[in-house]
Known about the structure:
- The protein is mostly beta strands and 105 residues long.
- It has one domain: Rieske Iron-sulfur Protein (3-layer Sandwich), CATH 2.102.10.
- Helix content is 0%, strand content 46%.
- It has strands at residues 6-11, 20-25, 28-35, 38-43, 57-58, 62-64, 71-73, 79-81, 90-91, 93-96, 99-103.
- The strands form three sheets. A four-stranded antiparallel β-sheet has the order 2-3-4-9, with no helix packed on it. A four-stranded antiparallel β-sheet has the order 5-6-7-8, with no helix packed on it.
- The site of FE2/S2 (inorganic) cluster (FES) has 10 residues, from loops.
Amino acid sequence: MPDDAWVDLVAVTALEPGDVTPVDHGGKRLAVYDAPDGIHVTAARCSHGGADLCDGYFDGKLIECPLHQGCFDIRTGQARGRPATRPIKTYECRVVNGMVQIKTS
Ligand code: FES
């Protein structure tokens, strides 16, 4: 995989410590999580009704949707609580020179 598949998303210092931070990238809204085991990135739109997961409650592992309280595992994107049943997209990410990067291809 060529290195140019990685693109800068947001500075680590701009993240909410221990919480979820919204980032708009390429016309999409992404959710960047500062979790105990590192940084994770998912789509920000709930797969149930499209609510912004960045407004939800993050416990370090699961993000709870603010609208109907569906839950998702931020590492896999899998739905972990109804009414959400379909997964959300996750993005491979890394930190380079203080910037969170995601793989675009
Ligand atoms: S919009 Fe997220 S659970 Fe319904």
